[in-house]
User: Fold these one by one.
Assistant:
Number 1:
Amino acid sequence: MEVYKKHVFVCTTGKTCPAAGGVDVCDALRKEISDRGLKKQIRINKTGCLDQCGHGAVMVVYPESVWYAHVKPEDAAEIVESHLIENKPVERLFYDGSGRIV
Ligand code: FES
């Protein structure tokens, strides 16, 4: 069995991300991946608190370790298309641990 080329963790069960739409972001990313037939190459996982509470929904993409904050379901298509497929991370959603980098 192949290993995933990219692995995405979306905070869905911590203190603040659930109220910020973490589950909806996860579902939207999964739908985009499924619609494009990429489920064997890219994995979207729900995760617990990533210790960045208050910046939700928070997510991280590996292996490049790119963090995103304040992600909304409507950002899913752009993240999948630009970052996960074309390897061009979505700079407007970057997060460095202190806040969004614009
Ligand atoms: S609740 Fe999402 S980072 Fe803590």
Number 2:
Amino acid sequence: MKIFESLFSRRKFLNSLFGGGLLALFATVLTPVIRFCFPGVIGPEPDEVLLTPEEVPQLEPNQGAIFRYGNRPGLIFRTPSGELRAFSATCTHFECTVQYNGKDKNIYCACHKGYFDLDGNVIAGPPPRPLPRYVLEQQEDGGLLVMKPEWAKKKKEEQAEG
Ligand code: FES
């Protein structure tokens, strides 16, 4: 009887593990497909996002992190020379999330081995376009304003006009 109970709980455990793994696999595969087929589902990308000082990742040169740009992932990194840069982290191929690759000093998409240089340009793999780059504006309180380039340009022109 004890063996039966032991087997039963092991089976239950394995079933939950398998079920959870399957669910994670579906989420990983289906999310980019849904985003690609129904771009409106996650809403429009905001023109700017203000990261509070607590939300700004503390990065050493040649390190990167993912942050939230509205409902989408953004990639922020310090180049090996220490310059802070930010891009959309949504791959231009099938919308997987890209990562900063400090080892090879590039941006990498693991879904289909897409590679981008540190300016966001495609250097290898299937992505058809560069990654959209954001403009960064350091705030006095230590926060960081992340903006679409056209929005940053418009704000600058409005400020110049008075
Ligand atoms: S989704 Fe990035 S390379 Fe295919």
